[in-house]
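Incident log entry.

Two folding requests arrived from the same account within the same minute. Monitoring flagged them as a possible duplicate submission, but the sequences differ. Recording both here for audit purposes.

Request one:
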Amino acid sequence: MAFEEALKGAKDEARIELAMTIPDFVEDEDARGQDGTCVIEVAQAMNLVPATDEQLFEMLGDEVDDMDGLRKFVSERLAEAAQEREENRIEGVLLDQILDQCKFDLPESMVDQQTEARLAQVEQQLAGSGQTEEQIEAAKDEQRESARTDAAKGLRALLVVETIGEKEELLVTNEDIDGELSRIAERNQSTLEEVREYYGQNTLGQQLAIEILERKVRRFLRENADIQAPS
């Protein structure tokens, strides 16, 4: 509450100082519980103003022109989101059932590589949050076993998805790639060329194709499964 009150009415480049008690999670144990000062420097202040009904109608275009239409629009979007969540849940259950039945050994070198890649992500996240090298190594040691388990499961899922995709001829086409890149560009208010260049520079094309293939396989499993409601 004090933090929010202090920021009310703040202007660009304002400097705000708040009295505080230093929390227990700071690295310096001697400082914990001591009185201190929190300094906030405001780079840019913005005032968020809720849109009017007329502005909402304009943003939604021809689909909505009054409050009844807005309620219907929101209700339909909520129903679509709920349906999408349920379909994702079903697809996940079906894929897990297949993975449980597919028992095969993986090359140790492949599992090792994927495990280290997962631990490298952990290291990057912890380093960005200011953790010490000792804390990072301790966290990696603690998570190594679970990271290896997750890596093995992920590899099995990838191989199963690729096998089903090949058998059922669920191909990833250039049109699929272009469509996905266009949707990414729209979500990020960017251009297709900029997104395509980013994915090319960061060698993310193969990962994108795998994600598209997995969605196709998951949808195929759901549409062809014999799903029965419990009696």
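Request two (distinct sequence, not a duplicate):
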Amino acid sequence: MPKKGTDLTIRVFAAVRKALPTSQLWLVGDGDLRRELESLAAQLRVTDGVTFFGEVPHQEYLELARRAHVGLQPSRTAGDGDTEGGAPTVLLELQGLGVPIVSTQHADIPFVVADPDRLAGENDVAGLAARVVELASMSDDDYAQQAARAREFVEREHDARLVAQQIADVYREAIGR
């Protein structure tokens, strides 16, 4: 889906490789654009660092996600006007696993990330790449603090029990109880 910005992810990775030549990009999921995305990786000469995992079972996704150092989600409004209509769930999942996020100021994303002031604009490859390099260049202690802040944010603001209670409160108020 163009709104997910996977082509941007590959472009960001190509920009990042200049500063981080041993970095890797793992793409999980599949769809109609895969051949086009594989072609883009080849055109940008980064196929040696890109792995297309395709669709994987949820447990395998979680194992891959736990091994990631950065979660990159450059969502944007697609050419046909299609948007997320919210925020990608993967942003909450990754932060919940302690993976810092690099993303865009798109739709509801600023409300589901620990550091909304660090979001790049839509289609801002240079801004997204700079944030990835910044995270990769942090000391181990600073990175650990960033990861912990992401996890704590999700636990504090997006825990399923908390959200369920908030929804129940809205319904109780609506029916006058």
